[in-house]
Structures are given as C-alpha cells and as structure tokens.
Specification:
Shape: globular
Distance between the termini: 34 Å
Oligomer: single chain
Helix content: over 70%
Length: about 375
C-alpha cells in the first residue's frame, strides 16, 4: 500500500521536496530559539517597553506598504503600455540586467547620487543654485523614509515585471490572452483598453505570491534600510536585527519577539494583498485610455527609458565614488583618482574568496 503511494509521486515532486528540505531544516533550527522568545512574557514586555517602538512599527508599515503599492501600480501601468507593443521583447531582455544589481549596491549608489554632496546636486550647483558647500538638507536618509521607499520601488518594479513576463509568456495562457485581447480590439477597444479589460484581471490573480514576496521584503529589509533608511525612527526590522546582534541573551529574546511581530505584520499585509489582487482588477475594467497618440515614443517607453537611465546613473555614481580621490564640492568630476578602496577590498582575499565560493556553490546547487 505504501509502495503504491510512493510510486504515484512524480519525479518533479521528489525534486521539489529535496530542494525544500534544507530550507525547512534551517527554518526549524531558527524556530527552536524564536519559539522560546515568542512564548516568553518577559521578552514581549521588554519589547513593549522599548522607546519609540510604535514609531518603528509605523515606519515599517509606511515604507513597506507604500513601496509595494507603488511598485504594483507602476508594474501594471508599464505592462499596459508595453505588452503587445513592438518594444515588449526589448523590455523583457533587459530585465535580467536590472535584477542582477544587488539591492545593497543599488542603495549605496543611490545615496551617492542623491546625497547633499551627490552627483545630482553637483550637476546643478553652482550654475543654478550657487551652492559652494553641500546644502543642509536630508535627501537620502530622510525622516519620512522617502529615500528607502524610492530604492525599494526601483528594485521591486523589475522583479514584478519579470514575474508578469513569465505569466504572459506561458504556453497555456499567452496565446489565449492574446486572442481575447484581439477580440476586444475588434469590438472597438484600444490595445491598452483591451489589456485592462481582458488580460490584467487574469494576470493580477497570478501575481499574488510575487506581490506577497515584495511585501515581505519591504517590511523586513535590513541591508537597504541600513544604507538608505531613516535613523530616527528606524524601521522595526533594523532594530530587531540590532537586538539579535547583541551578546546579551535577554536582548536577543527581545529581537526574536520583534521578529515574530514582523511576521504578524507580514501576514496582515499578505491578507491586504489578497484583497488588492481581487478588488483592483475588477475596478480596472473601468479604465479608459486615449488611443490618439501617434508619437514615436510612448509614455511607457519614456518611463522605461528613465528607469534604465536611473540604473545606469546609480551604477556610474557607485563606480566613480569607488575610485574618487580628492573630490571637493561642487566639482562634477573628481580632481584625482585613487585605487585605495579597491586595494583594500581585494586585499581582504579571505572575504572575497569566501564570497565567490558561496556564490558559486549556491548557484551550482540551485542549477
């Protein structure tokens, strides 16, 4: 009887189980400690007594939900302009380049670009502003978390576009959706109207899990928050990570309790996302777009080009800052170049070797 049950399991299911087993073991190991903190009244009481806890929770919810919602809307808007157009395949081909940019590296480059002494303000000073020293304004780690939201949005839009592209190119649905959109166009609707009426309601339902991943990352991100997030109040995930790094066991328990609180916030956000992917497509059916535009560049192409340009500018600012020597404000380019930063990184051969080894090993195992 048991042999018959096992014989019905497909090889793909065995492979999936084998891939999920190491992840499950790691999660189980972490849960042994975190479950203890979750059942400790002292840990929760200490967490509740932490100053500024409410502000940290509010900052996490504000930045995480705002970033996910903006990324969702921009993704839908770009798809409505790109899918079925002549530049759709060009968009899909360039997405891996954006996805391959590490989140932390993008955040560092973003700070170099928009900081008070960054390239954007150097570009307009002193010709337009007359600034001879960096202005005393907060442009990257602002108290509103706008810099963190911007970095998250610019990194999450390519991910959602990639997930959407995988659905739009599936053999079991792509041809059918194209036919349905064509039928809608024969009834007098424009190409973008047909997308909102026919394709988007079906596509949005399949993007629930990618949207959930975006929400989970936005609410719990640490590395990007360290670089571009506000310092006061800090997001809850950043404070939880700091508590977990402490050598005191009681402080570790507070961090674990904060982790459980974040998990509850993520689950609540996931329920909100379920409502979004069911409510929004129904109301998107009422969207009407103008079809009179015949310009050589559509608004979608302009926004997509701006996104590519932003990635290029961020990476260029990161590269320039890594080799800059003397670079006084407001000069647009460094007065001198220095390779000391690269030498310091390369000199840490153990760190570089470990990074490359981990990357190679994980890539081979995933493959």
């Amino acid at each position: 009887m048991h042999l018959k049950v096992f014989s019905r399991v497909k090889p793909q299911q065995w492979a999936s189980a084998a891939l999920a087993l190491p992840v499950a073991l790691l999660l189980l190991g972490g849960a042994v400690f975190s479950v203890g903190a979750a059942t400790s009244a002292q840990a929760w009481a200490a967490l509740a007594d932490e100053p500024g806890l409410g502000a940290s929770i509010g900052m996490s919810l504000w930045t995480g939900l705002a970033a996910a919602l903006l990324a969702w809307c921009i993704n839908a808007w770009l798809l409505s302009h790109a899918f079925g157009s002549t530049w759709w395949q060009a968009l899909v081909r360039r997405l891996p380049l954006l996805l391959a940019t590490p989140h932390a590296a993008f955040a560092v480059g973003w700070v170099f670009l928009v900081a008070p002494s960054g390239w954007l303000l150097r570009a307009i000073s002193p010709w337009l502003t007359g600034w001879e020293v960096p202005p005393q304004i907060s442009t990257s780690q602002d108290s509103w978390g706008l810099g963190l939201i911007a970095v998250l949005v610019f990194k999450e839009v390519p991910f959602l576009l990639w997930m959407s592209a995988t659905q739009l190119q599936r053999d079991d649905s792509a041809a059918r959706w194209q036919r349905e959109a064509w039928v809608a166009q024969t009834l007098g609707y424009g190409r973008r109207q047909a997308f909102w009426l026919v394709i988007w309601p079906q596509l949005a339902a399949r993007l629930y899990w990618p949207l959930g991943a975006v929400l989970a990352y936005s609410l719990t991100v640490v590395d990007v928050a360290l670089v571009a997030g506000p310092g006061s109040p800090s997001p809850l995930a950043l404070r939880a990570w700091q508590w977990l790094q402490d050598s005191d066991a009681a402080t570790n328990a507070v961090g674990a309790a904060a982790g459980w609180l974040l998990a509850l916030l993520v689950m609540a956000a996931a329920a909100l996302a379920r409502g979004l992917v069911t409510w929004a497509p129904r109301h998107a059916s009422g969207v009407r777009t103008q079809q009179t535009q015949r310009a050589s560049w559509s608004p979608g192409q302009l926004i997509w080009g701006a996104l590519l340009g932003l990635y290029g500018a961020v990476l260029l600012a990161l590269l320039a800052s890594s080799v800059a020597g003397v670079w006084a404000f407001p000069r647009f380019v460094p007065q001198s170049l220095s390779w000391e930063a690269w030498q310091a990184v390369i000199g840490g051969s153990k760190t570089v070797g470990m990074t490359l080894s981990l990357a190679l090993a994980s890539s081979l195992l995933a493959l």
